[in-house]
Amino acid sequence: MGLATIPAVINGRQVEVPPGTTILQAAALIGVDIPTLCYLPGKPPLTSCFVCVVKVTNRDGRADIRPACATPITEPVEIDTRSADIEALRREAIELLLAYHLGDCLAPCQLACPLRCDIPTLLGLVRRHELGQAVRLLRQQAGLAHFLAHVCSSPCEKACRRAQWDDGLAIRSLCHALVHWQKDVAAPENTPAPPPQGRRVLIVGAGPTGLSAAWHLGLLGYEVVIREKASGPSAAWLQSQAGHSAGASPTAEPAWVALEQDLQIVLASGVKIRWNDPLLAEELPERLLCDWDAVLLACGTEAAKIAAAWGLAVEGQLVAVDKTSWQTSRAGIFAAGSAVYGKTSPLRRVADGKHAAWALASYLQQGKNTTAENKFVFRAGRLSKEELAVLAQVASSASRQEIALPASGESASWEATIEQLVNEADRCFRCACVAAGHCKLRQLAAQLGADPRRFAGHRLPLAQIDPHGPIVYEPRKCVLCGRCVAVAKETSTVAGLTFVGRGFETRVGTPFNQSFAQALGAAGEACVAVCPTGALYFHKEPPKVERPSSTVAAEAGHNSPGKTKNA
Amino acid sequence: MVKRSEAMAWSKQAAPANEPFSHSEPTPDDLAYVDQLVAQYGADPEAAIPLLQALHNQYRYLPQWALERICQQTGISPAQIWGVATFYSQFRLSPVGKHLVQVCHGTACHAGGAWLVQQAFEHYLGIPPGSDTDPARLFTIEKIACLGCCSLAPVVRIDDVIYGHLSPARVPQILRDFLRHRRSQAGLDDDLPRHQPADSQAELRVGLDSCCRAQGHDRLYQSLVAAARKLRLPVTIKRVGCSGLCHQAPAVEVAVDKKRLFYLGVTPSAAERLVQHRFPPRPWWRRISTRAQNLIRWLWEEDHLPQAYPAQSPRLAPFLGSQLRIATEHAGELDPLDLDEYIRSGGLSALRRAIFQMTPQEIINEITASGLRGRGGAGFPTGKKWAIVAAQSAQPKFVICNGDEGDPGAFMDRTILESFPFRVIEGMAIAAVATGCRQGFFYIRAEYPLAVRRIRRALEICRQAGIIGPSILGSQYELQISVREGAGAFVCGEETALIASLEGKRGMPRFRPPFPAESGYHDLPTLINNVETFACVPWIIRHGAKAFASVGTATSKGTKVFALAGKIRRGGLIEVPMGMTLRQIVEDIGGGVPQGRTLKAVQVGGPSGGCLPAHLLDLPVDYEALTHAGAIMGSGGMVVFDDTDCMVDVARYFLSFTQSQSCGKCTFCRLGTRRMLEILEAICLGQGQPRDLEELETLAQSISQASLCGLGKTAPNPVLSTLRYFREEYEEHLAGRCPARRCKALIRYVITERCLGCTLCAQHCPARCIPLTPYRRHRIDQSACTRCDTCREICPVGAVEIQTGPPETAATPAAAGNATGPT
């Protein structure tokens, strides 16, 4: 080809590229994004995943499906990167990979928790004796942590992977002990810096929903004011808000006392409550929305009356909202908790407050509602005894133990309790995926709307190679992209990695069944870094640093955030 | 009849203590042996596969210490050696038994009941479920993709000895034969003495190819030589290549001058009489004595003198008459390794002409004008490929002969390599001259040991004769050729995978472009052609492009060699002009399906091809016509199916093959074919869902669109073609019926009223599920029946019937479990 550049048409847009430019590179030039899984920028294409397929039509009208990462443009062609059949092919590739895939994106406990609390991380912090961090995490994720520790019905424990093996972890009593260990913590200091909002949100009602929403909005940097018709946080009011907690608390302390604790913490975080200031139906929403960027109705059954008066959609005694955005029929006005569901459990009310806060935030940030989480979650489903045994090898074999608080109050020694906490946390199967946040397979599955059950068939059993690390390989999370094999090959001094076997049973392996860490040596870090999924990773828990238990004990009960660091 | 206990008893007496597999720790001698191998094969990464093969020959598996030693002594990285050792089926990482039983699962063998045979071997050898070796470690059983002896299907190879025409009931007899007679005998001895007296008046030709040997030709040859020597007859007894007459073996051809006579069905014991009859001894007293002997023999021996048929006789003419032999010219006439004879029959004249009378460009022009297309399957114009390689400026260039004939159901390349080694070498040399290649490789499947041996020997002869080497026939051209053995990976027939394999890597294809013609072996220009393509080249140069192009159709020129096998009366190796219809091939040459059966389909192109139904028999053999009909030309395997073959099972069979042969690189091929296979297995088990057929079609389309190499792109073809032409069979399966009475989960064996009560079935039933009830009608315990077919085979009155459809009694989980065999 004597031409200096070759003209190509990508999705109807003209582009001129030098000969030999791949389709992927050409598309990037004009900002067309082609999804890839096995492609490593700057390295020769591996052409294994076939996610980057595009349709190439040459001048003779011959159309071919080609991997964009490897196909050079050598003649004028028309390229289609996004038509329905191409998307379908990509989706199918991902669905085939998912049919082979086995593992939980998120731990079942976290999925079961209505607040989506990151329990695996929490347990990890406890195992590392970073109790201060753990409490902060707990508070950050579950605003009314103290209250919840009393009223939570602990669905997480039933969902716990370990519940299929022997008994689920005693998560609730663990949370309970944590919040008692450090009762009053101000705003978590490890939250990301709030965006400069200058935006104001009005919440109507200071019950669990309202407080929870206020806390989480506060964390996100919004100015929050709660209007509450009650005259103040009297015991009677608190009792009515706390409801009757079904699950008896591990301590004699009643739930409303815990709620009061949480109320103080919420107030300390900068949320303002205007007591004795009921919202009246006469106040027009237009007026309110002039003063406030958004309004959240969290005042239980009264909300429906106000909404009806405002002409918003209602369903009987309840406010009608969009169940994903918590928005009422009027933009800017939201409702959550009992206002939407009627009488419901305190756990649900707190959770609803959190989700409403997130929905509100995304409304305020983008002017429209989006859900914050990656919608795609792969669940491993039921595992066989043998598969559970694989997970069990990284957990302590102790049996379930409820965490008992020190016998009496502040002066008591926490040492025994902390040991219990750590031991219970060590029973965790660590089933959550290390790559949940950055897994390309998960991102693509969400992006392409893949159905993980479509090709469900015979599956290979769950396995972990070198479960005790330092480098762990989970063949069932591997997409056999070949990235790690290619990267390991670049370091000639190490034994390296190779594909082992053939066909469906192919996997990545080490020569002579060495451990991955041994075989990878100096190349370990680079190989782990290029894994697009959670198949190859450094052991989830770095080796434990021994620290004298007295230091931990000394911190107990003190309001000393930030001091709890690794020794 | 050998009972299981007897087989166990053999096992116990065997396995002496100092077997190679007892090596777990290396002795200094072992290490020295490995070092010596390294010295022999070199320390390049490229030597990995030959090194492992040599190790494997010595220890019958790959001991880890040896692999580690190789890594220490060579530039081969641990990752490379481990990847290679786990990729190729030939290599085992754990010790095997003393003898290796390789059960062929090629297409024809599958149709002939390879699973039943394997099951019978496992049963009689007492191999525990989940294992492949009997407890005494005497026998290891292995499933092998194809031994290339399709006309003898079903076939097994025990060590080097091939047994054909097996049935479950024959297994004990075969084991006995192997242990008593053949275990010490090298089945591959190719240096049988030639008998050639000076006053020779005639030639007795005995085919000694792999499949002929399996039919007893080697013993026949020896007894002929012995007889001729004893009687001092003036006849030459000669080893020849394949005549294609597989269905008539054992056969001897007698050639006096130009006259050819075929003696068919000759047993070794009849050899002497044949010789005496045909060439009566000179002295009158000897003549009388032999006649007297013959009379005595005739009185008490049953086998009579085999009859002789001239080539024009009705028995042979339909098979031989309509063939046109170019690649297999002089089939059955030449000693494969007799260079002089090859030259006398016109050999090497093409090479001489190419070197001394033509320029490279003229050679390429001639090949282009002939219209020759790649015979490996895809049909790329050979002249065009040569021109691309010739145009490359990078040096050195390589020429590779692709003899990795992995298609189950095909044995053209094996036969050509075994029978016409010089022709292939000549074709390769012409290609090398035309394209400027100075180094060449034969890449031949390790499953073809005789082909490897003969090519090695032929290359040696050629080197000595100055045909290859530093100077081809004294010219300025140079060509060094070496032989590499494949190690049991179908995908290595794909050119980029083949090159990876030559370079000592896992046989994983890579993205094209660049094509090997531009950047192949070590990123240098590489010409890869199939065995048959090279075999056609000398003829084209000798007779001219026009002569070649005058044969065939508009787009497909010349002839094509087919391996005709399956449910056909006259199977064998045939070569026909392109454009001949399938009907002419199957019915005229092949004689149609056996009596009483009806033809259901012709499978063309192996696992990449398709099943063409009976109503398409008038389709001409032509690249485009076959592709259009949903098959491909492929390398030329042609397997005929009759009404007892289940098309769903055939599709399942091919998919299980490609699935297991996928290199595992691409998502669609690695995972998609597996899902398709699972769906097909469910259908064969009667557990299919109506939407399965649609799902199969979707997956099939995606796999063929989004795979890197030909294996993936064509893997769905057998499914697509059977869905296209035999959809009603799929639907029958969805309804719980197997019309061909083949899918084990959907059939049951029933003894009808015709039963005489002879108890034969009860005695032979390996599952012991027929209670012994003399003089009364027998019954089969359906829950224990394994559908091994022994009772039906053994019943003297045909009282055992196979029924399909919803069973009258409860389903039989015992049989359903291993219904259509493991995956």
Question: What does this 3D model show about the protein?
Answer:
The complex is a heterodimer of chains A (567) and B (823). By secondary structure, chain A is α/β, with parallel strands linked by helices. Among the domains of chain A are: 77 residues, Roll (Ubiquitin-like (UB roll)); 167 residues, FAD/NAD(P)-binding domain (3-Layer(bba) Sandwich); 95 residues, Alpha-Beta Plaits (2-Layer Sandwich). Helix content of chain A is 36%, strand content 11%. Chain A contains 23 helices and 16 strands. In chain A, strands 2-1-5-3-4 form a 5-stranded mixed β-sheet, sandwiched between helices. In chain A, strands 8-7-6-9-12 form a 5-stranded parallel β-sheet, sandwiched between helices. Chain A is globular and about 80 Å long. Chain B has 7 domains: 98 residues, Glutaredoxin (3-Layer(aba) Sandwich), CATH 3.40.30; 68 residues; 120 residues, Glutaredoxin (3-Layer(aba) Sandwich); 177 residues, Rossmann fold (3-Layer(aba) Sandwich), CATH 3.40.50.11540; 87 residues, Ubiquitin-like (UB roll), CATH 3.10.20; 87 residues, Up-down Bundle (de novo design (two linked rop proteins)); 74 residues, Alpha-Beta Plaits (2-Layer Sandwich). Chain B has 34 helices and 20 strands. The longest helix of chain B has 18 residues. Chain B is globular, with a radius of gyration of 27 Å. The interface between A and B is large, with 47 and 45 residues.
